[in-house]
Structure formats: structure tokens, C-alpha cells
From TrEMBL, chain A:
Gene3D superfamilies: MetI-like (1.10.3720.10). This is Sugar ABC transporter permease. It comes from Ancylobacter crimeensis. PANTHER family: BLR7065 PROTEIN, SPERMIDINE_PUTRESCINE TRANSPORT SYSTEM PERMEASE PROTEIN. It comes from the Bacteria. Residues 81-293 form the ABC transmembrane type-1 domain. The lineage of its organism: Bacteria, Pseudomonadati, Pseudomonadota, Alphaproteobacteria, Hyphomicrobiales.
TrEMBL record, chain B:
This is Extracellular solute-binding protein. Its main location: periplasm. It comes from the Bacteria. InterPro entries: Bact_solute-bd_prot1, SBP. SUPFAM superfamilies: Periplasmic binding protein-like II (SSF53850). Belongs to the bacterial solute-binding protein 1 family. Residues 1-24 form the signal peptide. It is found in: Periplasm. The keyword Repeat does not apply. Keywords: Periplasm, Signal, Transport. Pfam families: SBP_bac_1.
Length: 301, 425
């Protein structure tokens, strides 16, 4: 009688044992997510609206959007946003193009495949900090091996990280070197799962290899590729380790990406509230991109 | 018999433990330390301290760039993992302002620890006021000029320099002299650069530039703590700094840190470096740096004043009382005259004047006489709650000017405005 005012389906669902069991099984996972992700996120949101700094560690008084206003009123913030967008687009595009090429080659390789995959996972298994330190040594302009090789080949020495026009792209190249393996593994798995029938039909119809790639492989690979691209896009937008180790945001502000900007505000400026506000702007951008990407994918399906 | 022997051993052990200070038993002190020679010198002596007091000390050594954040994370937590702190003078405004450090005045009073031998400027640098003593000086890192004497005596270079300038090639006495010699050597020195520079944005270039500023007669603040950075002297310093990065320094100077300059100098590929005076024994070492050993000299920064800096020992508030007592025991020991002299004989940069005049120290390192001049003539970077942030603000502007992305006038004004804003924050 008590449930009579509610829709019948709700009553049925609530009373359904499968429904209750489902929630019971999901509850531990949901609870863990709420603790490890929900709580920090809510707390960070609170900090971003508060007056909390490392010198005055108190949440109150809350200051509304003042921290967001201060962060977004800083010209360096917009410079950091623009650098982050450029960096992310270039690295993800590079990783995807190279990754797809390598994955297709691996797809046609039948010998020593495990060996190739093992080699490919090496950069991925390394921490970005180690990668940055290794590359910092290799690219050291005066004593590093990269310029030594350049000189041996009769080429001029290059100031890889000290030149403001080059530093961001050097960082992007290092990132591509490390992250491409991940894209390769995902795309290789996707390619291996594609059905053979469309290719056989295309061959009967006389389609060239390029036509098969363009009209069969790419469309069928789209869902897997989309996942690879979106994961990498999120990764690249959050890039912090490389600028921290390689350049500290310099020369000038040439490599100060958004996450490094947020770090500077929080830990050098001691303003955790402004750092949290900057981090939330980053989160909103990444969320918007993710939603837009999946929406576009769904529309094309 | 076995029982009697066991009882005897247990009694002897208990007697030994009872003879130690009550706080000593079972305490392990943990410190986050910068990975520099000074840390290694102390680390070698830790077994002696443990034997003497029963207190174990563990050093976690990392690069300077990572220290501040790692310490702050512990200091804002309910209980700090590090229970004795190595604190840079640049944080000597921030840490006490945030209420993270114990005031050491009661500890000094209770143990009759003598502060008189400590160089007064070092105590001031590390935040001593009439009312509080947040840190005990550990070592100083005043900066001076290390240069190659063999290159100044090279006949070809001397002749070329005289032909170009009409002057004799000699150790520089002014900032203009220094930059002129550095740019000359880079242009004429056959794969040599005039200056190994640490112009990476942040602490490296902020510290390095400060030497140029003080040598040019400039300052960050006047006696009333009003910002006076944007001055003719400041502009002269910045223009000369940018000129040296562009024409006198190594390729990649804008991304170089202390380690890079050290390697370059050690490899014999640079004429000079503006650096911490205690780098001299590290470079003047036949085994580590055969290319330059025996060919180096130290001087006060040309112009008369370099950047003065130092590290201090502190005790975090968020640790147990037992740990605090053990930390204080360690600080007294490591900064005592006996330990300081022993450290100096291994290359320590003293903060006590009685160590600089110690006969054994001067016999082993005659250049400590010059080192005392470097320390005495040093001036300080502005110390306040946001010093670390100001290094970054200043560093970004220096990097822009030195990289040719901003006019020195604009960069200097932005750096001065940034300092005013942070002082008013």
C-alpha cells in the first residue's frame, strides 16, 4: 500500500532480488570509489572555494569564485592553457599516427611477435621521472650524446631544452617516445580482433590496400582508436613530470603547462586554494573534451 | 651457568642504556637532506654520534629542487616523518610564519648551548629575531667566483686580449670586466666557454643573478624593506647577466642547473663559474677533475658582493617530544666546535668564526681565508614568507630577458612589481 503511489515498475524493481543482489555486489566497489575518488574530489572542490593556504590552513571563510577569478585573471594561466592544448594535440596525434603504423606492421608480423611486444612495453614500464632524467642527460647540450651524434654527422649542435622555440616540442617528442607503446598495444589488440570477412569481400571486389585501410580498417577500428585517443588526451592534459624535471616551466614560460601552473600556485605560492581552482579548471576542460569526443563518436555510429 | 651469564649480560646492557640520556634509547632521527658534499661529510660521522648517544640518524638525500615540496607535505601532516629538518634560508621566512618550527630559544637556554661563535649574519639569515630562534646555522653557501688561473696565463689568450682591449688579461675586479673576459674567452678560447652558467628558471638563475645584482651595486630591498630592484644598478646587472648567458656561457645555459655547470667546469670546458665557494675543493681534485685540478682560484664576486646563503637545522612541531629532544642533542653535536672542525677538515663550509681561524683547517685549506671574505661580504636574497615563490617569479623574468624574449627593462620592472605584490600578500 505504501508503494502504491509510485510507478509499478519501480516497485517491481525494488522488490526484485536480482536488483538487490546487484546493488549488494556493487556496493563495495562504489564505496571504495567514493572514499578514494569522491572524497578527495569534494574536498578539493571545497578548497577551491575557500581561503585555505599553507600559511593559514583553515577552510573558512569561503570566498565563492574569487580563487577562480584570480587564477583566470592571470595572463600566465591563459598562456598555460594554450601551451597545454598545443602540447596535447601534437603528442596525441604523434602517438596515434606512429602507434597505428607500428600496430599495423605488428599485425602482419608472425615471427618474434612476443619479442617485439616485450621491447615495446619497456618505455611504458618506465616512470616518467626516470624517462625525463635519462633524456635530460642525453640531450645535455655540451656533454650529451645527442649533440655528439649531431656533430659527428656534421650537423650543428642543438639547444634542445634551453631554446624557447624548441623546448616544448623537445618535451613533446620525449613524451611521444614513451607513450606510443601504449597506443600500439591498444590498437594492435583492436586490429587483431577485426573480422576477416570484409577484407575477403573487398579483395574479391578488387579494392586496393589503401582503400581497404580507409574504408574497412579505420571505420571498424574507430571505437578502439577513440578509447586510445581519449585516454592519451587525458594523460597529456595532466602532464606534469616532464616539465618539472626537464625545464621547470622555462625557458621563460615556454613549457609552463596547466598542471605545472597549478603546482606553482599551490606549492611555491603556498595558495592551495588557487592551486585547487586551477586544477578544477583543468578537470573541467578534460571532462568537456571527453564528453565531446564520446558524443561525436556516438553520433557517427 | 648459562642462566647466570645471561643475567649478567642483561644487567650490563641495562646499565649501558641507563647511562644514556633518557630520550636516546630507540629513537631514530630522519632528515631530508640535499645531496651535496656537505651532507656526505656529516653522513660519514653519523656512526660516531650513534655510538656516543645511542641515537640513530638516517639521511634521505635528494636534489634541491624536490626538497621544499617534500618537506611541506610532511610539515602540514599530523605527524612529520622527518623529525630533524635541514632548512634552506629561503624558507626561513615561510616555515616559521606557517608555525611549523619549534622555537629553539628554550632549548638553547636549557642546555647552555653557546651561540656566540656563530657568525651573526648567518643567524640573521636564518631568521633569528629578538623573540625567536627558528634555526641553528648548519653551513653557509655564500657565492663567489671560481676561475681558471692557467687560462689567464695562456700567452695566446693574453696577446689576443691585449690586442682587442689594450688591457692585460687578469682576474676580473668588476662585473663589466668579468663579462668582458667571459665573452672574450668564448669567442677566442677554442671550444671553451667563458662562464658555466646555471640559468634555468627558478632557484638556479635567481641565485646566480643575485650575484650580478649585488656586484653592480643594486639591491632587492632598501633598509625600510621598500622594493628598489628596478634601479639603474639593477638594469646594469640584468643586461650584463643576459649578455653573459648569450655570449659568454655554454649552449643550453637557460636549462642548466648547478650539476650541469659543475660537470662543464670539471671537464675543463669553461673558464669560470659563479658558484658556492665550497665547490672549489670539489673541482680542485686530481681524481675527480684531472682537467682542472691545480688550476683554479676563488675570489669574492667581482664588484665586491656575492649572494649569501645558508642552511640551518630545525625541529618540526609535529613530532614527538622524545624526537624533539633527540633532534636537539644531534644539532648540538653536529654544530659543536669539535665536530665543526672535523667537518671543515673534510671540506665543510663553516658557520662558526672559530672554525675559519682554526690552525689545522687553514693549514689544510689556505683558501678558507678568502672564503671568510666571501662569506663576510655576502648579501641576502629577500627573506619572507613567499621567498620560494619569488625565486620563481624572478626566475621567469630573468629567463625571458636572458633568452631575448623580453627587454631587460620590462623584465626588471615585472620582477620588481612581482616582489612588491608578494611582500604585500
Amino acid at each position: 500500500m505504501r508503494f502504491s503511489a509510485r510507478p509499478a515498475s519501480w516497485v517491481t524493481t525494488f522488490g526484485d532480488r536480482d536488483w538487490r543482489n546487484g546493488w549488494a555486489f556493487a556496493a563495495p566497489g562504489l564505496l571504495t570509489l567514493a572514499i578514494v575518488m569522491g572524497f578527495p574530489l569534494v574536498y578539493a572542490a571545497l578548497i577551491s572555494f575557500s581561503s585555505l593556504t599553507l600559511l593559514k590552513p583553515a577552510l573558512t571563510p569561503f570566498v565563492g569564485f574569487a580563487n577562480f577569478g584570480r587564477v583566470m585573471g592571470d595572463p600566465l594561466f591563459w598562456s598555460a592553457v594554450w601551451l597545454t592544448v598545443k602540447y596535447s594535440v601534437v603528442t596525441v596525434a604523434g602517438e596515434f599516427v606512429i602507434g597505428l603504423g607500428v600496430a599495423m606492421m605488428l599485425n602482419r608480423t608472425f615471427t618474434m611477435k612476443p619479442f617485439y611486444f616485450a621491447v615495446l612495453t619497456i618505455p611504458m614500464a618506465m616512470s616518467p621521472v626516470s624517462v625525463a632524467l635519462i633524456w635530460r642527460m642525453l640531450l645535455q647540450p655540451n656533454l650529451g650524446i645527442a649533440n655528439h651524434v649531431m656533430e659527428t654527422l656534421g650537423l650543428p649542435r642543438i639547444d634542445w631544452l634551453g631554446n624557447a622555440d624548441l623546448a616544448l616540442w623537445t618535451m613533446a617528442a620525449i613524451d611521444i617516445w614513451q607513450q606510443t607503446s601504449f597506443v600500439v598495444l591498444i590498437l594492435a589488440a583492436g586490429l587483431a580482433a577485426l573480422p576477416r570477412d570484409p577484407y575477403e569481400a573487398a579483395e574479391v571486389d578488387g579494392a586496393s590496400a589503401l582503400q581497404q585501410f580507409w574504408y574497412i580498417t579505420l571505420p571498424m577500428l574507430r571505437p578502439v582508436a577513440a578509447i586510445a585517443v581519449i585516454i592519451q588526451l587525458i594523460n597529456e592534459f595532466r602532464t606534469y613530470d616532464l616539465p618539472y624535471i626537464l625545464t621547470k616551466g622555462g625557458p621563460g614560460n615556454a613549457t609552463e603547462v596547466l598542471s605545472f601552473f597549478a603546482y606553482r600556485r599551490a606549492f611555491l605560492g603556498l595558495s592551495l586554494n588557487e592551486g585547487a581552482a586551477a586544477a578544477f579548471v583543468l578537470l573541467i576542460i578534460v571532462l568537456a573534451l571527453t564528453v565531446l569526443f564520446f558524443w561525436s563518436l556516438e553520433r557517427r555510429r | 651457568m648459562t642462566l647466570m651469564r645471561s643475567l649478567g649480560l642483561a644487567f650490563a646492557g641495562a646499565t649501558l642504556l641507563a647511562s644514556l640520556p633518557a630520550h636516546a634509547a630507540g629513537i631514530t632521527l630522519r632528515a631530508l637532506m640535499e645531496d651535496v658534499p656537505e651532507t656526505q661529510i656529516i653522513e660519514k660521522m653519523l656512526p660516531a654520534f650513534e655510538k656516543e648517544t645511542g641515537i640513530k640518524v638516517e639521511f634521505e638525500k635528494i636534489g634541491y629542487g624536490d626538497m621544499h615540496d617534500k618537506l611541506v607535505a610532511q610539515l602540514v601532516s599530523p605527524e612529520s616523518y622527518y623529525n630533524v629538518l635541514e632548512v634552506d634560508f629561503l624558507w626561513a621566512g615561510e616555515f616559521p610564519a606557517a608555525g611549523w618550527l619549534e622555537d629553539l630559544t628554550p632549548y638553547v637556554a636549557k642546555s647552555n648551548f653557546d651561540l656566540k661563535p656563530f657568525i651573526p649574519s648567518m643567524l640573521e639569515l636564518l631568521g633569528q629575531t629578538k623573540d625567536a630562534l627558528p634555526l641553528i646555522p648548519m653551513y653557509n653557501y655564500s657565492m663567489g667566483l671560481i676561475y681558471r688561473t692557467d687560462l689567464l696565463e695562456d700567452p695566446k689568450l693574453r696577446a689576443a686580449f691585449k690586442a682587442k682591449t689594450g688591457r692585460e688579461l687578469a682576474a676580473p675586479t668588476t662585473l663589466e670586466d668579468y663579462v668582458a673576459i667571459a665573452t672574450f674567452i668564448k669567442a677566442n678560447g677554442n671550444d671553451l666557454v667563458g662562464a658555466a652558467m646555471q640559468a634555468q628558471r627558478g632557484d638556479p638563475n635567481a641565485m646566480e643573478f643575485s650575484n650580478y645584482l649585488f656586484s653592480a651595486g643594486g639591491a632587492y630591498l632598501d633598509a625600510n624593506r621598500k622594493v628598489v630592484l628596478d634601479s639603474p644598478e639593477g638594469l646594469k646587472a640584468l643586461k650584463l647577466y643576459a649578455e653573459n648567458v648569450q655570449k659568454g656561457a655554454q649552449q643550453g645555459a637557460l636549462s642548466a642547473t648547478l650539476d650541469d655547470t659543475m660537470r662543464l667546469m670539471c671537464a675543463g670546458k669553461a673558464f669560470s663559474m659563479v658558484t658556492y665557494w665550497w665547490m672549489l675543493p670539489q673541482l680542485d681534485d686530481k681524481e675527480k677533475c684531472p682537467a682542472v685540478a691545480g688550476k683554479l682560484a676563488l675570489s669574492v664576486m667581482p664588484g665586491g658582493h656575492g649572494e649569501s646563503g645558508g642552511w640551518g637545522w630545525g625541529i618540526p612541531k609535529n613530532t614527538s617530544d622524545e624526537s624533539k629532544q633527540a633532534a636537539w642533542t644531534f644539532i648540538q653535536w653536529v654544530q659543536s666546535q669539535k665536530t665543526s672542525v672535523a667537518r671543515a677538515l673534510e671540506g665543510h663550509a663553516p658557520v662558526r668564526s672559530d672554525v675559519y681561524t682554526d690552525e689545522a683547517v687553514l693549514k689544510k685549506y689556505p683558501f678558507y681565508k678568502t672564503a671568510l671574505d666571501v662569506v663576510a661580504s655576502g648579501k641576502s636574497f629577500p627573506i619572507f614568507a613567499y621567498s620560494a615563490q619569488y625565486e620563481d617569479v624572478l626566475g621567469a623574468q630573468l629567463s625571458l630577458a636572458a633568452g631575448g624574449q623580453a627587454k631587460p627593462e620590462d623584465a626588471l620592472k615585472a620582477a620588481a612589481d612581482g616582489l612588491t605584490q608578494l611582500l604585500n600578500k
